[in-house]
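Researcher: I'd like a structural prediction for the single chain below. Treat it as a standalone chain; there are no partners to consider.
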Amino acid sequence: MLVAVDCIIFGFDGEAYKLLLIQRGFAPEKQKWSLMGGFVQPHESVDEAANRILEQLTGLKNVYLEQLHTFGALNRDPVERTIAVTYFALIDIQKYEKQINNEYNAEWFSLNEMPDLIFDHKQMVDMAKNRLRYKAALHPILFELLPEKFTFPQLQALYEGLYDTVFDKRNFTRKFLSTGLFIKQRDKEKESSKKGAFFYKLDQDKYSSDFQAFLKFIPNPEKFLV
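Model: Treating it as a single chain, here is the predicted structure.
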């Protein structure tokens, strides 16, 4: 019985959520689109395997990585019995796009335009999206997807994209400012409008120390789960 790790890597390009996929390099399902994965080695833990695979295939280090679920259906791999432990990662596309390892033909796909995936990888992605929706309603986890400086319109687009809904701009801004998580910058982003929107930075000390302490950002998150 083999133990594998599969990494579901989410990014956000400012407009849409993206998923990083690779073309499988061996049979079965060779050249078909797949999550990034590999087998756990005898000398490493499952968490260590996930971090190693993420770094080998993408060049990414020190990103948000969380264990999601274990998939162990009898026939999920047609060759031999394989149990897969899944993780999801959140990365800033702008920061890491040049580090992607081209050896594996890695490519970003919109979550709404994903190709067919091998085995049970589509089920893994759906579960990860639901987990992300639930956690983002309770904690400021989505900031892992943003660049160092961002505007509130960008932040609102981030949340609206995940929940496929529209939030009231005034209420959204007031609720997030009330957390005390943000440091207003002097400069503005002026590409989107003549007036421009002020940039903000995340207060990293508050973010790290009070991550579990914030009130719900999204009311009734259960209604968004599918």
